[in-house]
Amino acid sequence: MFHIVQYQPLRLITQNSLSSMYLKLMPSRPIAFAQIWKSWFSSHSLVGNKNIILMGPPGAGKTTIGRIVGQKLDCPVIDIDDDVLETTWNMSVSEKLQDVGNEQFLEEEGKALLEFSASGSVISLTGSNPMHAAGMQHVKKNGIVVYLDVPITVIMSRLKSMKVDRIVGQSPSVSLKDILQFRKQFYKRWYDVRILCGGDITAEVAAEKVLDAVKRYQNSELETFISTRSSRSGRSMEKDSDKYFSDVVTQGLASDGGLFVPERGLPNFTAGEWQSLIEATYVERAQVILERCIHPADIPASKLAEIIETAYGENFACSKIAPVRHLTGNQFLLELFHGPTASFKDFGLQIVPHIFAYCIPRSCNYLILVATSGDTGSAVLDGFSRLHDTDKQRIAVMIFFPEDGVSPIQKSQMIGCQKENAWSVGVKSDFDFCQTAIKQIFTNSDYTGFLTVEYGTALAAANSINWARLLPQVVYHASAYLDLVHQDVIPFGSPVDVCIPTGNFGNILAAFYAKMMGIPIRKCICASNENNVLTDFIRTGVYDLRGRKLVPTSSPAVDILKSSNLERYLHLIANGDGQLVTQLHNQLENQGHFQLQQDLVAGWCSEEDCLAAIHSVYSATGYILDTHTAVAKVVADRLQDRTCPIIISSTAHYSKFAPAILRALKIAEINQNPLSQLHLLSSYSPLPPVHWGLLETLKKKSNEDHQVCAADMSMLMSAIETLIQNHFM
């Protein structure tokens, strides 16, 4: 049996201590004294005294990859099967399994692992080691566990070629596929980092990925964030120290007024890595993508998995979470309305509250401030109201929405979603005022300092100006493409276009990020309503607000003139030149316009055309588009060239906009009461059912009230102080 004592720090090692160390090293295959010294010295800089522990299903290549990693680091390599179990048992693993049976085998295997110790080595676990909790806890104490994640279909093919017909846990009533799927829960429990190993990846490439993953795990200082108004070569505008993911989650907005972006950009996935996710569930895809974007020093993989499963587990009505539905011709709908509040905002705002609660310090209370043009409000209120009671005591949320600038159902939903730690405030102005007011509050250091000193409360944001809110949206754009591949609509690598109704620019920016990460998106098409400042900007390069006034429409989430996330896009196409972004922002604020060259595609849709699209699509297919999706459908019809599929983001459920739907379908006279509108939609049997959560929310909370404020900064700040006093004091 292998037993390697823990190495001493380099500065304390002497010739005598090395000789003593060699005498205590008793492998089944001898290792020369010179090799011990060389292996310790070469591997110490990467892992020190820790082990690199390779974990994965049988057939994942742990033994071969482990040997290559060991050669590259010039350090001991230990295969649990060959060097520990078979040496301990004096028989082969297959003979032991046949001798004692499944349950006893796991116990004896775990016992052997508990008696094993090593340092500075590469260890290849068995496929069943992770099923023994005590054994894994023991071995994990002194190691970095690397999960070799191989698709089940690839594993089954490998095992067949290896003529392996039985693994631990398999029986006549349990198939090989079922046992491999069952084991995934144990692998997810223990790993620190994951590498994706598709079917065509070589062991050499996998070994390099292991080393890269371990280096990333140990170097969190490389994954910092900067303000969009600072440059990558120097932080001239953002004077703060390094910011990490957990910092930007809690801070929200940079101190210079810019938005946080990853200093070194987003991770890139290879084609093989994306292909390994084709058969994965939405939750599995989300975890893989977010793990690569969030360093484990900020949120460990096991905690991130818990957050994702909580967010997308029972809170979404559709098991596919974000299904892709064929509409007509080469057009497909990405349905983003199956969450609890019936809009795409649920994808970020079911996750963000749990991320926020994990990242913030326990010594301070936090008030989340959010500006909303409609859908964000109810999603924020719902998401933060689902926190554990202890977290709700220290985290509250207040949303500001244009009192007369959202649909009646949206307003009723926001009022109905109020809870003990979540409040909504109507503002007698438009969304642009609400958003600007919140930015001014965040950058008012005197006011935020006063709240901290006087009330022990810090402010944070949950709009898509918060990086953690935007990041989960990248997942569904990537997942939609993978679904089309899985449905055999396209082979992997063939391009698609995406068309997205766009207001604050977060959703289309997330698609652009997915493209940067390796998803073959050809064109990102920005769809506007009559508030078409973005369309004009994308077509002409000129962002011009002079003389523009907001036009209320039936697609209120697009009723925005100043798009916050556009600043992240500008930073991207300016190659990280924060000074240019600052100049453009100041020019827009002071002169009402700026000009820049960029490469998106855009179109806009009138109210008349929006309603006509709802009617024509329903007449042809029986499917009802909401008003925002109808805007995107009209623009897609005009701009697509039909040489590839186009994915239209369906951002909300049609029942949130009942008056416009009833008007478009010419069903009946429209009652102003939101609950009556939903009842009317429900009673019309040819229509698909109204959203599962919307009707219940309005039924239960229809008589509740909310606070209304004038468009005055002092009144908004007073409302904030009142909430803090009532909830935290």
Automatic annotation (TrEMBL):
Alphabetized UniProt keyword annotations: Amino-acid biosynthesis, Pyridoxal phosphate
PROSITE patterns referenced in this protein's UniProt entry, alphabetically: DEHYDRATASE_SER_THR
Signal peptide: none
Keyword Amino-acid biosynthesis carried by entry: yes
PANTHER family recorded: THREONINE SYNTHASE-LIKE 1 (PTHR43515)
GO-annotated molecular function: pyridoxal phosphate binding
Listed GO CC annotations: cytoplasm
Protein name, UniProt field: Threonine synthase-like 1
Domain of life: Eukaryota
Gene3D superfamilies: 3.40.50.1100, P-loop containing nucleotide triphosphate hydrolases (3.40.50.300), Threonine synthase, N-terminal domain (3.90.1380.10)
Record-stated family: Belongs to the threonine synthase family.
GO BP: amino acid biosynthetic process
Pfam families for the chain: SKI (PF01202), Thr_synth_N (PF14821)
Cofactors, names only: pyridoxal 5'-phosphate
Threonine synthase N-terminal domain boundaries: 239-312
Pathway: Amino-acid biosynthesis
Residues with N6-(pyridoxal phosphate)lysine modification: 345
